[in-house]
Automatic annotation (TrEMBL):
Pfam families: Glyco_transf_20, Trehalose_PPase. GO terms for cellular component: cytosol. One of its GO terms (biological process) is trehalose biosynthetic process. This is alpha,alpha-trehalose-phosphate synthase (UDP-forming). It catalyses: D-glucose 6-phosphate + UDP-alpha-D-glucose = alpha,alpha-trehalose 6-phosphate + UDP + H(+). It comes from Glycine soja. In the N-terminal section; belongs to the glycosyltransferase 20 family. One of its GO terms (molecular function) is alpha,alpha-trehalose-phosphate synthase (UDP-forming) activity. The keyword Glycosyltransferase applies. Keywords: Glycosyltransferase, Transferase. It comes from the Eukaryota.
Length: 725
């Protein structure tokens, strides 16, 4: 079969397959909690099982890697191999990797209970394309990535610093021709004949499931019992054939289920059986393909009562074999198949035994006309949405995704080559370093916004950055500007001890730490709008848990980065509507939508505009005989904030360097610190163009012409009066 086996030893199989896959991921992905005693045991063994899981995935990766040839597509399947995409991409990031999940992906609220939640998501995201059976599962996955990892969910998939992982639904199908053709075979016809004779005079109901908790076998049998109880006239006219294929027999939960089902079947057969017939025929084994096809073909009503099921192919197979009989499918709404066969099937909630019992009655007595219509609908679907089509669509989508990604990467700035940054720095003589503050020099914040002391952290310089910053700022060949949206007080508190420039409120206020604050904004700015905007912000802060707003001197910001991401976004949209309709409708204001914030400020106040003024200031102040020959921006400057000098276009993009070779190590420390703290695996820089010829980020303008000297207005901070000097 051209398969290459991956041999796992017994211990790994036990910890990886029986343990982590089937005792942890399987019940979790199917919304089934563990029994109390197992829960504690699982908690204790979790780490060793997860280690075995990673090890087993790595073993698969090693084998794939050994056989991989350039251009191959690698398609990883199911929850057993969630770690594989990452392992493969680590070997070769050009490998085309897809991952498909055959089970449901649960709500992010369920996924977040998993201790390894983030690691698993990140490994899957290493794939180029991630597929699920239904849109709901895909939606849950994207939502887990946004809520747990704090990444951006887009209609296309999940974005992580410019890298998009495509996420989409690819409902599986079956090879329907194989089933329809099998029905013509003499041995299948023979089986059908035997079955018809065996159950002559009785309607045949069928269940075909692995003996798994997710399949809702006890619920199905109990519903059948209820039906017999309430419809005595049907007792000798209907039989339920339940094929329960043994599975995962080493897992204790499955052993318990077997006994439970036997007990219920025995009880019902004892209750409703006669000397010559029993209502339930229960088989603890699998059938061969031909027997199964025959059984599907003679069935009047198929019962699929999965509590959760990725898709459920049995329902497709039943439909494929019903061209002549046109039997009825009763299908759980919690099976993926309900999304595609729902229109022709009778959908039921498997937890509602009364509803299933009523549906059994309805199905058995359904008119031929209705059966025909329902069947046609589903038959058409099964015939057209085949497994071949499913596989071809996934693979072609994967190839397209790679092509699109290549086009995208041309637009995304390339990664910062750290060594080049260091080399250029050490060769330069007049460096300008522009640093952001929030999300750059202070503490990173957990995606779930858990840091209780978040507001504190937000405004506090990270202790690890103090020493590098001190050395940098004392270097006479280096000018540092901290350019932040934060107010003056915050910058004063954190940076007064350094020799540097501070630009507060996006550059409205500027000072060198050796002198007083000044502003370059026009006098007598109309700030009448503030109160009404504040009123709106207060309203939304009260109604959006963990959001807050900050009233600055020239602007006001509503921030929801610690709030529930999705709710925050909805609230932000609503808030904007309130603003447009009210306070800002007539005012000359800029409304800036950040990643997780909304800021309102006077027109013209932006980091882009500010940088020009700042440069004018520092260039004139320093006299600047030597042109700036190195520019470095480290920041979380929002996308599309273009510095006036087109210094760079930064979105969590880092350019970093140090003057003195002795400081190289320190610089590397800095880079590593920042990249690890903010998961900036994609340090980026962009070629810059000012004024001409094209310069790289590290060599700014040999021919730099400082802008005209600006008018300076000194701020009298003590009594808070602005006056022009
Ligand atoms: O190998 P087993 O442990 O006996 O399990 C059999 C397979 O069960 C799961 O199947 C899922 O995939 C089906 C096709 O996509 C889908 O229709 C069904 O709803 C799922 O349960 C499991 O995901 C497979 O890996 C197992 O091999
Ligand atoms: O005796 C049996 C009973 C079932 N099946 C097959 O097992 C599969 C079950 O797939 P499904 O998607 O319904 O559920 P899963 O077991 O994968 O969760 C179907 O293709 C059935 O034809 C089988 O080969 N022999």
């Amino acid at each position: 079969m051209r398969c290459i086996p991956v041999f796992l030893d017994e211990e790994i199989v036990n910890q990886y397959y029986n343990g982590y896959c089937n005792n942890i991921l399987w019940p979790l992905f199917h919304y089934l909690g563990l029994p109390q005693e197992d829960r504690l045991a699982t908690t204790r063994t979790f780490q060793s099982q997860f280690d075995a899981y990673k090890k087993a995935n790595q073993m698969f990766a090693d084998v794939v890697n050994k056989h991989y040839e350039e251009g191959d597509v690698v398609w990883c399947h199911d929850y057993h191999l969630m770690f594989l995409p990452k392992c493969l991409k680590q070997y070769n990031d050009k490998m085309k990797v897809g991952w498909f999940l055959h089970t449901p992906f649960p709500s992010s609220e369920i996924h977040r209970t998993l201790p390894s939640r983030s690691e698993l998501l990140r490994s899957v995201l290493a794939a180029d394309l991630v597929g699920f059976h239904t849109y709901d599962y895909a939606r849950h996955f994207v939502s887990a990535c946004t809520r747990i990892l704090g990444l951006e969910g887009t209609p296309e998939g999940v974005e992580d610093h410019g890298k998009l992982t495509r996420v989409a639904a690819f409902p599986i199908g079956i090879d329907s021709d194989r089933f329809t053709q099998a029905l013509e075979l003499p041995e299948v016809q023979e089986h059908m004949k035997e079955l018809k004779e065996r159950f002559a005079g009785r309607k045949v109901m069928l269940g075909v499931d692995r003996l798994d908790m997710i399949k809702g076998i006890p619920q199905k049998i109990l519903a059948f019992e209820k039906f017999l109880e309430e419809n005595s006239h049907w007792r000798d006219k209907v039989v339920l054939l339940q094929i329960a294929v043994p599975t995962r027999k080493d897992v204790p939960e499955y052993q318990k289920l077997t006994s439970q089902v036997h007990e219920i079947v025995g009880r019902i057969n004892g209750r409703f059986g006669t000397l010559t017939a029993v209502p339930i025929h229960h088989l603890d084994r699998s059938l061969d393909f031909h027997e199964l096809c025959a059984l599907y073909a003679v069935t009047d009503v198929a019962l699929v009562t999965s509590l959760r099921d990725g898709m459920n192919l049995v329902s497709y197979e039943f439909v494929a074999c019903q061209a002549s009989k046109k039997g009825v499918l009763i299908l759980s709404e919690f099976a993926g198949a309900a999304q595609s066969l729902g229109a022709g099937a009778i959908l039921v909630n498997p937890w509602n035994i009364t509803e299933i019992a009523a549906s059994i009655g309805y199905a058995l007595e359904m008119s031929a006309d209705e059966r025909e219509k329902r069947h046609q609908f589903n038959f058409k679907h099964v015939k057209t949405h085949t497994s071949q089509e499913w596989a071809a669509t996934f693979v072609s989508e994967l190839n397209d995704t790679i092509v699109e990604a290549q086009l995208r990467t041309r637009q995304v700035p390339p990664l910062l080559p750290n060594k080049v940054a260091v080399d250029c720095y050490s060769k330069s003589n007049n460096r300008l370093i522009i640093l952001g503050f929030n999300a750059t020099l202070n503490e990173p914040v957990d995606a779930l916004g858990r840091a209780g002391q978040i507001r504190e952290l937000e405004h506090k310089l990270h202790s690890n950055t103090k020493e590098p910053l001190k050395k940098l700022s004392d270097d006479p060949k280096t000018t540092i500007v901290v350019l932040s949206g934060s107010g003056r007080a915050v910058l004063d508190k954190n940076f007064s001890e350094f020799n540097m420039w501070l630009a507060a409120e996006n550059g409205i206020f500027l000072r060198h730490t050796s002198s007083e604050w000044m502003t370059t904004m026009p006098e007598n700015l109309n700030m009448d709008w503030v109160d009404s905007v504040k009123h709106v912000f207060e309203y939304f802060t009260e109604r959006t848990p963990r959001s807050h707003f900050e009233l600055r001197e020239m602007s006001i910001v509503w921030n929801y980065k610690y709030a529930d991401v999705e709710f925050g976004r909805i609230q932000a949209r609503d808030l904007l509507q309130h603003l447009w309709a009210g306070p800002i409708s007539n005012a000359s204001l800029d409304v800036v939508q950040g990643g997780r914030s909304v800021e309102v400020r006077t027109i013209g106040v932006s980091k882009g505009a500010a940088i020009d003024r700042i440069l004018g200031e520092i260039v004139h102040k320093k006299g600047m005989k030597t042109p700036i020959d190195y520019v470095l921006c480290v920041g979380h400057f929002l996308a599309k904030v273009t510095f006036h000098l087109r210094l760079c276009y930064c979105y969590r993009k880092i350019m970093i360097g140090l003057a003195d070779p002795k400081l190289w190590n320190l610089m590397k420390m800095c880079i590593n610190f920042l990249s690890q703290s903010y998961h900036l695996n994609h340090l980026q820089y962009q070629e810059l163009c000012y004024p001409n010829p094209i310069l790289t980020g590290h060599h700014l303008c040999q021919n730099y012409q400082p802008p005209p000297k600006p008018v300076r207005r000194q701020l009298n901070t003590r009594n808070n009066v602005r006056c022009q000097t």
